[in-house]
Write a structure and sequence with these properties.
With about 290 residues, the chain is α+β, with helices and mostly antiparallel strands. The chain is built from ten helices and ten strands. This is Choline/ethanolamine kinase protein.
Length: about 290
């Protein structure tokens, strides 16, 4: 069955529909569907165990995020299909988030995610522990005899040091994939979308991911942390945050290495691996120098 046939077969539409692919999405395929009375976003994607993605968890997190006022309404769910209300909005880019005024709007949204979504989440919830994910990715790459396998022992040794440095850990409900395109601006407010990796984690992982995904300057990182925590930045918090930022970059690197082997989506994962490995090495060098 083609994606278009599957969308037609959902049985939730009012009259004839128009289907248009939405660009982006490297763990699923997204479509804008217009019927006689509404526009909806349809996300097609099966579970991806190798990436710890459960679509049932994504559905539950999406419902909780809507209930918390952070994300569009869930219209329909069945295994492999998530239908959401369409929001007329612009997806942000990294340069948008680097702007101090936009960052001041984003940080409260991230903090609300960490505080509010767990109050609305129902059913079994995931734990997204980045150091477990890193170790599991390494095992997957070794089992697949990946070309990247020779570098894994050194990367795992660095991950162990990062885990030791990043504690003690607070726990909150995290988005865990704060790419710029997952923030939407409708001209009046911001929305946070795409809950593939949602689960309980330390807030510093999301903050580190927000900074690393969007290539913040150190000044922007300090602004983000002081805004989020509402107090002056201490050396201890900076040290723990820096460790989690490195960990988020290492996880993204290994994610890409695994995707080179397992993904069927048309995307240049090899180039993405090279880019993220270089960014991790730069961040880790700065982390070492700051110890």
């Amino acid at each position: 069955m083609t994606p278009e046939d599957r969308i037609h077969a959902l049985g939730i539409w009012h009259g004839p529909i128009e289907i248009a692919p939405i660009a982006g999405g490297i763990t699923n395929r997204n479509y804008l569907v217009t019927d006689r009375i509404s526009r909806r976003v349809v996300r097609l994607g099966a579970d991806i165990p190798v990436h710890h993605i459960s679509r049932q968890n994504e559905f539950a997190a999406s419902q909780a995020a809507y209930a918390a006022g952070l994300s569009p309404a869930v219209i329909h769910y069945e295994p492999g299909v998530l239908v959401l209300d369409f929001i007329e909005a612009r997806a942000l880019m990294a340069e948008d988030i680097q702007d101090a005024q936009m960052l001041a709007r984003i940080v409260p949204l991230v903090r609300a995610c960490h505080h509010d979504i767990a109050l609305h989440f129902r059913g079994q919830a995931m734990i997204f522990w980045v150091f477990h994910v890193i170790r599991d990715y390494a095992a997957t790459l070794i089992a697949a005899e990946s070309d990247h396998a020779p570098m894994l022992p050194a990367l795992l040794e660095k991950a162990e040091l990062l885990e030791q440095t990043a504690g003690p850990f607070d726990i909150a409900f995290g988005h865990n994939d704060l790419l710029a395109a997952n923030f939407l601006d409708d001209g009046k407010r911001l929305w946070l979308i795409d809950w593939d990796y949602a689960g309980f984690n330390t807030p510093l992982f999301d903050l580190g991911g927000l900074a690393s995904n969007n290539e913040f300057s150190e000044d922007a990182e300090r602004q983000m942390l002081e805004t989020y925590f509402g107090r002056p930045l201490t050396r201890d918090l900076w040290r723990r945050y820096s460790a989690m930022k490195c960990s988020s970059l290492l996880r993204e690197t290994l994610w890409s290495m695994v995707s080179e082997i397992h993904s069927t989506i048309d995307f240049n994962y090899a180039a993405y691996t090279v880019e993220n490995l270089a960014r991790f090495e730069r961040a880790y060098k700065a982390f070492e120098q700051d110890q």
